C-alpha cells in the first residue's frame, strides 16, 4: 500500500487543499485541518471554549456551493486563499478578516438558511465532526468501486478525507479497525467507520448535487459508511508515495 493523497480543510466545509507532505503529531488531527469554522446565527454557542456539534457551523450539506471551494493556506501567516468557480478568489486571515470572509461567503450560502455570523477557532481543537482528534483514512479502491456501481466517476474530494491509500482491495479498510498502520514515519490506529451525509452527493467541481452516493451505499451494503477514523499514536512525517504497512 502507498499513501496516494494528503488533504486538509483549513476552514471547516469551506475549501479543501491537497498537500505533498505533512507532519503528524501523536493525539492530534492533521495540522490545520478544520482549524477555523464559520458559525451561523442559529448556533447554540458563544465564543468557542470546547468542541461543539457540527450543526452550529456552515456545512456543505446545507450549502452545496461551499463544496466547490478550493483552499491554499500560508501556515506562517495564517492566511487562506479561497477560490470558487463563480465567487472568484479571496485571501483572508481568518483570525482578523472574519467580516470579509463572511461577505464573500454570503452569495454562496442559501438565503433560507441561518446566516453566517462569525469565524472562530479554538487553539488545539480541530472543529471536525467528532470531538476526538481523528485523521480520516480512506481507500481509493472503495471510491472507484462505488463509482463503478453508480456508473460515474466520483471525485475523492466528495468525502473530505485526510489520507487516501492505494493498494488495498475495495472496502478492505473496514477490516483494519483496531489495527495500526505505519505511514511514512508515523503510526495511526484505525478506530471506527465514518457514516456519511448528503454533502457527499455534491460534485466538488461544480457545487451541484449530482450523485446519489448514500443511496448507492445503502443499496450495495445496507449502510452509509465510507472511510475510517484513525488516531495518531506515533508522531512522524508523511509524504505522498510513502509505503503503508499494517502492523
- Report the mean per-residue pLDDT as an integer: 97
Number of E-state strands: 17
Instruction: Report the uncertain regions.
Output: none
Strand order of the largest sheet: 2-1-10-9-15-12-11-17
C-alpha Rg, in Å? 17 Å
Amount of beta strand: 25-35%
How many domains in all? 2
Name of the top-level CATH class of the largest domain: Mainly Beta
Question: So what's the oligomer here?
Answer: single chain
Main sheet characteristics: 8 strands, mixed
Indicate the overall shape. globular
- The helix content is 10-25%
Question: Would you list the SSEs in sequence order as H and E?
Answer: EEEEEEEHEEHEEEEEHEEE
- The chain-level structural class is mainly beta
Number of helices: 3
The CATH superfamily of the largest domain turns out to be: PK beta-barrel domain-like
* CATH topology group of the largest domain: M1 Pyruvate Kinase, Domain 3
What would you note in describing this structure?
The chain is mainly beta and 247 residues long. It has 2 domains: 2-12 and 20-24 and 131-246, PK beta-barrel domain-like (M1 Pyruvate Kinase, Domain 3), CATH 2.40.33.20; 32-120, no CATH class. 11% of the residues lie in helices and 34% in strands. The protein has 3 helices and 17 strands. The protein has helices at residues 98-105, 140-150, 213-221; strands spanning 2-8, 17-19, 21-24, 37-40, 70-74, 79-84, 88-92, 116-120, 135-139, 163-166, 180-183, 186-195, 202-203, 208-209, 225-234, 236-239, 244-246. The strands form 5 sheets. An 8-stranded mixed beta sheet has the order 2-1-10-9-15-12-11-17. A hairpin with a 3-residue loop joins strand 6 and strand 7. The longest helix is centred in the middle third of the chain and has 11 residues, at 140-150. The protein is globular, with a radius of gyration of 17 Å. The mean pLDDT is 97.
Amino acid at each position: 500500500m502507498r499513501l496516494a493523497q494528503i488533504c486538509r480543510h483549513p476552514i471547516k466545509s469551506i475549501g479543501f487543499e491537497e498537500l505533498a507532505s505533512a507532519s503528524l503529531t501523536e493525539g492530534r488531527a492533521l495540522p490545520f485541518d478544520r482549524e477555523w469554522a464559520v458559525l451561523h446565527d442559529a448556533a447554540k454557542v458563544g465564543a468557542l471554549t470546547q468542541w461543539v456539534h457540527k450543526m452550529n457551523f456552515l456545512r456543505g450539506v446545507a450549502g452545496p456551493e461551499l463544496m466547490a471551494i478550493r483552499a491554499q493556506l500560508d501556515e506562517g501567516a495564517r492566511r487562506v486563499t479561497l477560490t470558487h468557480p463563480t465567487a472568484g478568489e479571496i485571501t483572508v486571515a481568518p483570525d482578523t478578516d472574519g467580516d470579509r470572509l463572511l461577505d464573500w461567503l454570503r452569495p454562496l450560502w442559501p438565503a433560507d438558511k441561518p446566516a453566517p455570523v462569525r469565524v472562530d477557532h479554538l487553539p488545539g481543537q480541530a472543529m471536525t465532526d467528532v470531538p476526538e482528534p481523528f485523521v480520516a483514512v480512506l481507500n481509493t479502491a472503495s471510491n472507484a468501486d462505488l463509482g463503478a456501481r453508480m456508473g460515474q466517476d466520483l471525485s475523492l474530494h466528495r468525502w473530505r478525507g485526510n489520507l487516501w491509500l492505494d493498494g488495498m482491495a475495495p472496502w478492505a479498510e473496514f477490516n483494519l479497525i483496531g489495527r495500526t498502520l505505519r505511514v511514512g514515519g508515523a503510526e495511526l490506529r484505525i478506530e471506527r467507520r465514518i457514516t456519511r451525509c448528503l454533502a457527499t452527493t455534491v460534485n466538488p467541481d461544480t457545487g451541484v448535487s449530482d450523485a446519489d452516493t448514500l443511496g448507492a451505499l445503502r443499496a450495495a451494503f445496507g449502510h452509509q459508511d465510507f472511510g475510517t477514523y484513525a488516531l495518531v499514536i506515533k508522531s512522524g512525517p508523511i509524504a505522498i508515495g510513502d509505503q503503508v504497512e499494517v502492523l
